[in-house]
Structure formats: structure tokens, C-alpha cells
């Protein structure tokens, strides 16, 4: 495997910006899920304090603030991503709202609590968001440590919403492989297994030439595994589904394969929401 900093710093992550419909489905699904009104509207996150895990270049932090969040703190394993996020967000004004971005491995108690000490941040956040973080956990122990950290930082009754690899990839790999092989920018290839956890390589490609730019390994956890590990760490799973597309978007101009991959049961990413029910 490639070193984490080397992978997460690659400039080709900008290829995601070239697919705004796909990225918007991430944000629409997460923001609507965390909104008390269950809407994607102006100020639908009004007054909320949100922790954004694996914040990357800060795009999601900006959208959470635009939707009314009072405070957003972002964490990312890559120092380069952290600096990029700070630079991006410094050019945007959010009157009365604040943000911070720190470098930390979101699965490491030592690293996270060094920047978010429990003396200040225990049960502090109203909600937690995470985009494509949990499919990077190499084993159930690491996944569990990440959820335990979330329990310590989230208010009782607070909700955590995240996007991960679709659990169906493990059981219907050939269907997903065929769907991604046409006009999609993230191709599934080389399924495998790591200590009992199904894996798949995800190759990001140039949409015009189909040339591979870089490859990541995704760990595919089942809904049963997520439910078990969440339960062990004081959460109950309350929602799970493929991405939801904003009804204002007209997807008729896209191929059937592309539409299947950005929303619905075969979306390459998968949405899970859990509620904290016990302090750990």
C-alpha cells in the first residue's frame, strides 16, 4: 500500500471537482440527514456545532457553514490537505460563524484528543460528518476506536452521518465493476480480502483518456458490522441508504450507468446515520 500522506496529498483529488453532480449528492445526503428539519435549505443547520472528519480540502466545511452551522471543526490526516482547507476557507466570509482545521488521524485517540482535549470538547458537538473516512479503516479495531472517539466528542442524542463504500460491493462486485467501467471517474478493480474484510481497489481515471491517475484501497464493511461496532460504542444506526439526489437536478442528460452510481441502491458510496444513545 502507498503511504497515507502520499495518497491523500495527490493533486489528482482535484478530479473530484470535475464531477460536481456526484459530489453534490454526497453533501445533499449528509446535510439533509443532519438537518433537524430534514431539509436541504438555507440555514437548515442553524446554530449547530459540527465536527467534520477527513475534511480534505475544506469543501464540506464551507458548505456546512453556508447552511447555517455556528461552528465547524475539520480534521484530516494530511497536513497538506489541512493547509489547503485553511487557504480555501480564508477567502470566504461567514459572519457570526467560525471554523478551525487541524491535522490528526481520525482513528487515533492520541492524535485527535491532542487537538480536541476532552477538558474542552467532551460532549461538545451537535453532529459529526465524515466523507469517505470509514472505508479507510483497515480493521474493526481501528473502526471501533474511531467511533469511540466520536462518542466522547458528541452530545448525547447527537447524530453522526457518514459516507462510506457501499456494502453491496462485497456481494455484488461484478455489477459495480460493470457500472463503473463506462463513463465514471472511479473504477472498481482487483477485489481482495484483508484479515477477513473484503477490499477493492478504486482507480481514479481521466474521463477523456481513461488513464489511471491513482489508486486507493477501500475496506468494505457490511451493515451488520457497522451496526455491531456502532452499538459497542454507544450508538444506534438510524438510517442507511444509497445517495439521494437533489430533486432540483435533472439527471436525464446522464447515462443510465452514471445515474445508478450517483444515487439509489447501486450508488458507489453509501450513507449511514447513527445516533448517540449512551455516553462512553
UniProtKB/TrEMBL annotation:
Q: Which residues form the Methyltransferase domain?
A: 50-157
Pfam families xrefs: Methyltransf_25 (PF13649)
Among CDD domains, the record links this protein to:
AdoMet_MTases
In Swiss-Prot or TrEMBL terms, this protein is called Methyltransferase domain-containing protein
What organism does the UniProt record list as the source?
Blepharisma stoltei
